[in-house]
Amino acid sequence: MTDTHADDTDRLNAAASAIAAGDLVVYPTETVYGLGADASSADAIERVFDCKGRDRDKPLSLGVPDIDTARRYTRLTPRDERFMRAFLPGPVTVVVAADPSLPDALTAGRDRVGVRIPDHDLALALLRRVAPTPVTATSANVSGTGSVRRVADLSARVRDACAVVVDGGETPGGGSTVVDPERGVIHRRGALGDVVEAWLAEDAAGE
User: Most C-beta atoms within 10 A of its C-beta, which of 93, 139, 152, 185?
Assistant: First the structure.
């Protein structure tokens, strides 16, 4: 495992190369640190589950740098796109119809998937480097333990499992709001929860 404290270019290039090789990385977001791997690779996704000790029946979200990349792995409705353009990049996980090309391991066999476009310069730069490959977007912690805002607080289990840790300093914390715009359902209220709820009501009223 290599902590990357050189300039941003070196840090991001090392992380991108690790993801391309099927390895795990830790990267900062606008909420907490994330655990990243190739979200189009069933083998890489399995490594994420093993690292976190996560139940296989709990799906993972994917991170992409923009809506155009999201379209490759999803089947967005017009309402999905309106919502995404209103809130992304930002601390919101958007649940949409998954493209059948995504591994069942990522979606836990479901037909929907969460999409993240984080509002963080380092995260977006990493996602752009690996695009169009999507990256897993899940917190860099062992399941059942608290999320991590500082690299120093990563568990030994996560650090040992990762090829690269991108240290972006302390993150703001909190969690993303998880929302299915097409179905008008907020699965988890986090950052921007009230604003998301208002948008869903207004958009539904305008249809």
Answer: 93
Question: How do the residues of the chain divide into helix, strand and coil, expressed in percent and rounded to 5?
Answer: 40, 25, 40
CATH number (3.90.870.10, 3.90.226.10, 2.40.30.170, 2.10.25.10) of 2-206 reads: 3.90.870.10
pTM for this predicted structure: 0.93
- Per residue of the chain (207 residues), give pLDDT as tens: 544 445 688 989 999 999 999 999 999 999 999 999 999 999 999 999 999 999 999 999 999 999 999 999 999 999 999 999 999 999 999 999 999 999 999 999 999 999 999 999 999 999 999 999 999 999 999 999 999 999 999 999 999 999 999 999 999 999 999 999 999 999 999 989 999 999 999 999 887
DSSP string, the chain: -EEE-S-HHHHHHHHHHHHHTT-EEEE--SSS-EEE-BTT-HHHHHHHHHHHT--TTS--EEE-SSHHHHHHHEE--HHHHHHHHHH-SSSEEEEEEEPTTS-HHHHTT-SEEEEE--S-HHHHHHHHHHTTS-EEEEESS-TTS---SSGGG--HHHHHHEEEEE---------BEEEETTTTEEEE--BTHHHHHHHHHHHHHH-
| Domain spans in the chain, listed from the N-terminal domain onward | 2-206
